[in-house]
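#struct-pred

JT: dropping the chains for the assembly here, can someone run the whole complex?
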Amino acid sequence: MRVDELETPVPVVDIDRLEANISRLQSYLDEHGIANRPHIKTHKIPAIAQMQMDAGAIGITCQKVSEAEVMADAGFNDIFIPYNIVGESKLARLMALAKRVTVSVTADSAYVIRGLSDAAQRAGLTLTVLIECDTGAHRCGVQSPQEAAELARLIEELPNLNFGGLMTYPTSEYTDSFVRETRTLLADDGLQIERVSGGGTPAMWQVHVHHEITEHRAGIYVYGDRLTLRAGSVTLDTCAFKVHTTVVSRPTPERGILDAGSKSLSSDLHGLDGYGYICEYPEAKIYALSEEHGHVDFSACERKPEIGERLTIIPNHCCTVTSMFDEVVGMRGNEVEVIWQVTARGTVR
Amino acid sequence: MRVDELETPVPVVDIDRLEANISRLQSYLDEHGIANRPHIKTHKIPAIAQMQMDAGAIGITCQKVSEAEVMADAGFNDIFIPYNIVGESKLARLMALAKRVTVSVTADSAYVIRGLSDAAQRAGLTLTVLIECDTGAHRCGVQSPQEAAELARLIEELPNLNFGGLMTYPTSEYTDSFVRETRTLLADDGLQIERVSGGGTPAMWQVHVHHEITEHRAGIYVYGDRLTLRAGSVTLDTCAFKVHTTVVSRPTPERGILDAGSKSLSSDLHGLDGYGYICEYPEAKIYALSEEHGHVDFSACERKPEIGERLTIIPNHCCTVTSMFDEVVGMRGNEVEVIWQVTARGTVR
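RK: done, full complex below.
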């Protein structure tokens, strides 16, 4: 079947580009001796995670326990969950997971670390815990090397935990100094920082300048999107992921309405202008989204589309798009080669 | 099971409030002799659609053919799809649906109308088509009564179609005059406008002032959200839908991080300040969302939450939230009474 025979809106992956993207980052990280631990939250598809492993990844990254459960069921046996896992029932699920595959997690507070230790004791296993460090993103993470060192000592002190190193997102200009200062603080305790996990697709080609980083977690690099186009880490020619849509209305000479809205493209903006890049009409602007309508201003385009015309859109943020669809189409040339189930979709707990 | 024993993030509906919301709008529309045709895109759950029908709705509204297929499978037999349906395969599905239940659709162009006529001919059935009119929303819809009249004549002229009236969204101050002018234009053709379908929860208590409206489509009214709170059509006491979350990090004295991000709350803003209303901390602001993290500024709150504390959030837009979850919990008091499958989730085609 040809891709243009598929009903829209439909997310489509160019498999040739996907393979090239997986291979390109793996080669780069190999060249610099940095382990690759791709984040599967972007695609949530075991078959694509397997392509990443086959290329040389050392394991995968998942953002939630439920994502990791899906991936463990699919046969992946080394899973990092860089997240503060809180709550008795969720901790019990984490421990059940840690009994069947190699799991590491992160923490940025004594509260989370104590919860992990208690649960690991109850489960009778030892869990590897990294400290999440805020090196500029101002999300989670301890605020100083002093705090990182304190929590590392707590991990070592409490039963059934193993200090696994440091984690940050994204890797930044502050990462190396943060790691070095923490290392200095821990030297007297005899605690080594062996693993330093950094992340992010926007700055993925600069990972090698951060000498402290031992492994990298990138998610979007497999697909590419407008966020990473803006960052310059992917190009229009390497973007593997597009949402195919149809023009369903041309109510005015300038306005067009697409059959893809916030339930297909997501409302993620992150400072971008408009809700996606229309490949066939680069000057057009998707200026608003209803749930099932994309509102487009074509006034800057010399030629304007007809009703029924199919358009392909590079979304602002591919991760929030894929998680809304049950299936993603893989194409080679313009032929449908595979339909992937987004197996880990809906796994937010 | 108590609701506070559920893992988070989890969307929870207060069934008492849900029932009251359904009953309240039905009574209001009954009082004014306006038919109720609720939009199920908000909840996508057949059991809730059935509650709406049991209360007195004349039928339901779906936004996509796939949503309507799910609802037809669940036994609903009068479905309105106020959407331009384009493309051979989708039209074939629409006709298959129209063979088993009563279906009406809309169109705002000759292109769409011709497609519907061709498909209806092939299927050997007659389809009811309403004209979508833009009465101020600037989304889809013909721009003038003249255009509406022209398309109404085309529907009557082409085989296997039946002119079903006018549709607009949302009902506005321009709706009545648009309808009356179109009626005047069609008088000589002997074409009656019997059905005028308006919609929207924000202005639902003013529907009766629009004398031309014969039926109303509201979606959000069952749940309520921040958009409809802003509009004043729901209140904090009637909001039936909340996302329960947990504080997983307190990296600084002012900042808190929740376990719900854009993959749970959606990034819909629509001009609102922040990504949701935290019921326990009304002064707090959810100032950013990562996929699985909600970034909250608690600086305006006298008391600030601890890690592990559970918070309940009224999202900006409940429709884009429910469509991301496979299940929604129905509670009575604080006990889980039912877990609904979001059966029509993922149906964007």
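JT: nice. The domain at 3-9+228-341 of chain A is CATH 2.40.37.20 (Lyase, Ornithine Decarboxylase; Chain A, domain 1). The radius of gyration of chain A is 22 Å.
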